[in-house]
Amino acid sequence: MKKKFFILWVVGIVSTAAVLPYAFTLQHDVIAKVAQPLAVIILASITQTAVLLAIAIFFGLKLSERLNLPTLTLFEPNISLKEKLSSLLLLTVPAGAITAVLITLGDKLFGQYIPQLTIANSQVAIWKTLLAALYGGTVEELLMRLFVMSLFAWILAKLSRSTEPAKNGTIMWVAIIVSSVLFGLGHLPITSALATITPLVIFRAIILNGIGGLVFGWLYWKKGLEHAMVAHFTADVVLLAILPALLK
After folding, report:
1. With b meaning 16 or more CB within 10 Å and e meaning fewer, what string describes 151-182?
2. What is the mean pLDDT of each run of 10 residues along the chain (248 residues)?
3. Exposed e or buried b per residue across 100-139, where buried means at least 16 C-beta atoms within 10 angstroms of its C-beta
4. Please, are residues 27 and 128 in contact by the beta-carbon 8 Å criterion?
5. Which terminus of the chain has a smaller tally of CB atoms within 10 A, N or C?
6. DSSP H helical segments within 79-149, as ranges?
7. How far apart are CA 240 and CA 96, in angstroms?
8. Structural domain count, the chain
9. DSSP state, 148?
């Protein structure tokens, strides 16, 4: 567990630093009002997330072990790394791309009523969006799938006295759905820098992010955490970089 914890924690911290240019662009007006040097804001952001990740990863790994949910299956023996990577990419890349297309279609629909969100996203530099994809694929999966989804699955297993929660579809799907809704709501703070929070904006956040949450949650449950992470990263790359370039 120590090796997994260290790997996930370091990757999470690096990804947190990578997303800052994207976040600072979207929240430029908010940051301009903060009476602190940029270096202090950066250090505080990384430190805060590092502490949060340490807690989430530690308990997430503990919970996943008790639930018998797969975490980093690439470290499992008996199968070569080449075969594992091939299997991983053949499933997660298409899943991530399809997820991105579905979210884009939904965004086009909501964009008729909340155009400022779509317009604002298209104005972010491509290199910043690519760095942001690292954050989505790692930090968001560590927090929402490894910790939150596992936590709800564990609570439901305790309440229902299930001895094999990972094999209980009801428990796992409820945990996936709840974590997906929270995943959507978690995007509202950064959305508030772009648009006034209204019931429609909240509904949009839940639906669009929920699409990804359902896919990534299922992958974590059935295949392993890294499958959810790679699919999420792929979805963000396609969603934030590839599709906007193709649809211009």
Report:
1. bbbbbbbeeeebeebbebeebbeebbbbbbbb
2. 90 93 74 71 89 96 93 76 82 95 91 71 76 92 96 95 91 96 85 79 91 95 94 93 80
3. bebbbeebeebbeebeebbeebeebeeebbbbbbbbbbbb
4. no
5. C
6. 81-111, 115-122, 126-135, 141
7. 12
8. 1
9. I
